[in-house]
Write a structure and sequence with these properties.
The termini are far apart. With 200 residues, this protein is mainly β. It is built from no helices and 15 strands. The strands form four sheets. Strands 3, 4, 6, 7 and 8 form a five-stranded antiparallel sheet that branches. Strands 12-11-14-15 form a four-stranded antiparallel sheet, with no helix packed on it. A three-stranded antiparallel sheet has the order 1-2-5, with no helix packed on it. The protein folds into two domains: 84 residues, Immunoglobulins (Immunoglobulin-like, Sandwich), CATH 2.60.40; 83 residues, Immunoglobulin-like, CATH 2.60.40.3080.
Length: 200
């Protein structure tokens, strides 16, 4: 009587080295009320990268396209943001196999809480002041020089200047009597007022 035997062979998978693509990593992000500055580390990555963004109520869109050399950091400044909104950013890396995306980075844009008049120089002045101020946004705004009775002597539009520290020249004109006056900054129905003096 013959006996048969069976042999079971377990085959262990042989490890195969597969190149893992190197993706850029975010080095820094700085958000202010009127811009976002992002910097990516692209060491070891070369080719074309698209800088993309979407908001919570918008689809992804390409902000810019850059050629990267695998050495220098990739930076981008986005000045089309709105205070109080949240945006998401990513890089799209193009290759023969298609487009590979980096992880998304969420950025919340701070809100400027109030108008501000930071002063006028010289003070006192003979007829003209350089006024330093901050706006809520880039919407229409104006600077006014008023007498103590509230009459407007001169008005200067400062629309479209954007956020951050701003300066503008306010000229009272020749022959303005010496005395105390008010500078008023107006935007969105809000006002900031500062006192100045005219002396000859």
């Amino acid at each position: 009587m013959s006996q048969s035997s069976s042999v079971i062979i377990w085959a262990a998978p042989f490890p195969v080295d597969v190149a893992t693509p190197v993706l850029p990593s975010l080095l820094s992000v700085n958000a202010s009320a009127d811009r976002v500055v992002l910097v990516w580390d692209v060491s070891g990555v070369a080719g074309t990268a698209s800088i993309e963004r979407h908001a919570e109520d918008e689809d992804w869109s390409v902000l810019a396209t850059r050629t990267i050399n695998g050495r220098d950091p990739l930076s981008y400044e986005d000045t089309s943001v709105r205070p109080g909104h949240r945006y998401f950013y990513r890089l799209g890396l193009s290759s023969d196999a298609g487009v590979t995306f980096t992880a998304e980075t969420a950025v919340s844009i701070p809100v400027v809480s109030r108008l501000a008049l930071d002063g006028a120089a010289p003070n006192p002045a003979s007829r003209a002041f350089t006024v330093t101020f901050r706006l809520l946004d880039s919407a229409p705004a104006s600077l006014e020089l008023m007498d103590l009775a509230g009459r407007v002597i001169t008005r200067e539009s400062v629309a479209g200047r954007g956020l951050g520290l701003q300066t503008a020249r306010l000229d009272a004109g020749a022959g303005i009597p010496p005395g105390v006056y008010f500078i008023r900054l107006l935007q969105h129905g809000h006002a900031a007022i500062s006192r100045v003096a005219v002396a000859h």
